[in-house]
User: Fold this.
Amino acid sequence: MTTLPTDRLALLYRITQTLNSSLDLDEVLNRMMDEVIAATRAERGFVMLRDLNEQLVFKVARGMEQQVIEAPTFQVSRGVVEQVARAGQPILTSDAQADARLNLRQSVMSLGLRSILCVPLQVKGATIGVVYVDNRLQAGLFTSADLELLNSIASSAAVAIENARLYQLAVDKGRLERELQMAYEVQASLLPRHTPHLPGWDFAAHWQPAREVSGDFYDFIPLGQNQLGLVIADVTDKGMPAALFMALSRSIVRASMTNAPSPLDGITQANRLICADSTNSMFVTLCYAQINALMGEVTFVNAGHNPPLCYRAENDQLGRLTRTGMALGVEADAPFEQRVITLAHGDFILLYTDGVTDALNAAGEEFGLERLRQAAHAHRQATAADILVGLRTQLAEFIGDSAPFDDVTLVVVKRV
Assistant:
């Protein structure tokens, strides 16, 4: 490698300083292109970078006097560009029309290209893009000295480009994290802030997303004196789509149940509305229970949800509130059934989502229904809050340091 003349060393130093003075990717690319065109006396210049699919994408297309070139895809020799990107080696030609390497390429001939200089942009041996300059009028414009200079500029530019890209990724990640945090806060605000106070009844609830947002929800719906509706539900998806569908479902269910003649009528109406708004084949499993505090009656509809556990103090047994219909959002005219049970003093119902029973430990074992039954039975004499604490403690001990498999929601209602 020959030594660059003093004036070109000064130019390279100035360009390097200019490139490293900004972390804005567009600004870095445009500054680089302007400097390259001026230094090489090129008619036109282009910068292409690899995208996430490893495809070369135009980022800058400039002519002399900083003129933007429209439709750059049809203005360069793609064969030259792809060869440089693939091999990681520069190409210099004094007259592309007479160069045996290039004169068979249709784009070279149709565009009337003469002088072409194309060098790779490389970071740690990986080619992240190319810099391409040409001249359609003058042959012999570029020399080996221009190639050496452009290689040196590209080396500095590649580092500046990568720094700018990493900075932009960090900015985007920070913005995404802030947006997800806001989404979590909005979603959490849709859940009840306090458990209800109903004479003779005790309530507790827990909601824990596996990710930033959740497809699970629960709700307590006031229905007048001595009447209360409670809901636990699980959207069959994860992430932001599930969170949005959760908010929609929660609003529809709450509105449908508030003035419904019966739980069956309310769930039927909610299902029709959710089906009408479900555009991506999403649906929600749900269990709704309506409490008559004075009579001790619980009327429930289980729409495809995990059957809640029902503890009976009289015989010290745990039963299940089995499904009485399919999930909401599947079929608009799906039939549902409501059932009625009576809770005596000391009886309780444990509602949960499949994030509890499907939770995995480090060995890949599921927490399962039997462990849930044993934990619920072990704390059967406790308050609703203490039952919940016991369940969460046992679940946490089982999972250990393993990442959460799914959202976890638990609701306990006990007659005291």
User: Anything to note?
Assistant: The mean pLDDT is 87. The domain at 6-168 is CATH 3.30.450.40 (Beta-Lactamase). The CA atoms of residues 112 and 136 lie 6 Å apart.
